[in-house]
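Re-run with default settings, no changes from the original entry. Doing this only to confirm the output is reproducible before filing.
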Amino acid sequence: MDLTDVQRLYDDWGASDALWAILPFTGKRGNRWDVGEFFQTGVREIETLLQSIRALGWPLGRGTALDFGCGVGRLSQALAQHFDTVWGVDIAPSMIERAQAYNRYGTRCRYVLNNRDDLTALGDTTFDLVYSNITLQHLEPRYARGYIAEFLRVAARPGLVVFHQPSEHRLPPAASRALRQALKRAVPSSVLAAYRKLRTVALREPRWEMHGIPRDEVTRLIAAHGGRLLHVEDEFNPRSGWHSCTYFVAT
């Protein structure tokens, strides 16, 4: 999907079921998230992030932070407990509108709509911390590469960039793989495509794409744009089959 498609998808979900679209937990679909519970997940995530940064011995400045892919502000509101100023950036107008409605920190937390493939709305060497989690995975690699380079541009000197990016998709177990292959042989591809389209329309299923960039390629990209890789946290999700990395990068 190009950025226009991504914006359309997330704007639709931001208007209809925003919290579940961000955290699609079992039993939370249909606006069943408790707002306080939802934002508390952000508090816990940021506390864990800051613990990881302290463990690395990085002297993190607490002036300004950037939350890329902010959605309704789940993480930017939590960051505002630790930074003087927080900027949240998202591609969907409905998400930004909800983030502004949920904002409890006034002008200390600012939300920006960005539908470009860069971050030219943000100045160079601005942010003590740039953070992006479970966002780049839904963007085609051509966009994700550009945003990673932009993260390094807008980070302060010194600053820290932390971002999550899937690296590879591992095939399912042989038995499951064989079953899927048998299904594809038995059912014409046109029928499967029509079923998926009907299910999407009838059940209003989101059609989130997942994309990865190999770890060694991300490492080269970081170095090419002046970053210094401090640490990588690896994660494998057996349900989805995706191996992901969280990169901690000094600038």
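Confidence is low (pLDDT under 50) at residues 199-204. The first helix runs from residue 3 to 16.
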